[in-house]
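Go through this one:
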Amino acid sequence: MTGLIRAEILKLTRRWATWVVLVLLLGMMTLVYLLVGLTGGGARPDATGFVTRFPAASGVINQFVFGLGSLLAVAWAAALAGGDWNWGVIRVIVARGEGRIRYVLAKAIALALALVIAVLIAYLAGILLTMLAAGLLGGSAGDPLAARSLSGFGESIAAGTLVLLQRAAIGFAVAIVLRSQLAGVVVGILFSIGEGILSTVLLALSFRQGDGDPIATQWFQYLPFGIGDSLLAIAPGPSGNLGSLLGEPVDPGIAAVVVAAYLVAAIAIAALAAARAEIAG
């Protein structure tokens, strides 16, 4: 098993998708922070403070790493898992006598390790870019190592990484079940966007039918991506979300358990699909 994991990690470092996704995220972050630093000089200090001063600036970092990062993680995991079917890697694995379930588990572990490293890199980049933007504005970003900031970073990274792992696992499972790289990417992203639209519409309808007070937790808040949003509310971004405004959020402890359950279920489905698939000679 250890040898399979090492082999999968080596494969990840040689896949263009791994580096393209990370560079895309870092490039988008750099562009936004440079624009804030170069064009925000005429704005009120409170208008740029949530981007360039800690601990409030951590909310913007969260939006990049765990907001945009969620879609990228789904696409990345689906592309790498589905690519093995498109390129005939599974047929080679079976011919060599490797267990399909062991292969799927090894690949999932390798993807998880790479994702954790990517989160740490992106978060560090976000801190440095925040300080750069503050310097361009002629101000100070504050101390990112202050107790309050460190506490926020710790909660954000722990909760956000679990959510990214769960969402990447969904893309991973979809690609293996459909045995297609492109289908895994498209279906995974559409599922993410579609669930968000569905939850927003149902939440708004529930609010209109009530008395105007925040409504109780609804069943659709436990859907795979919705429950992840509830966990990410531990470290919200600056804009908030409709669910936090209209509805009672799911308790973070319960949300973490449900997110972990979806993660395990997605990997189990992927392993079962790989074990039962017919491999053409």
Observations:
- The chain is about 80% helix and 0% strand.
- The longest helix spans residues 100-136.
- The chain has one domain: 2-275.
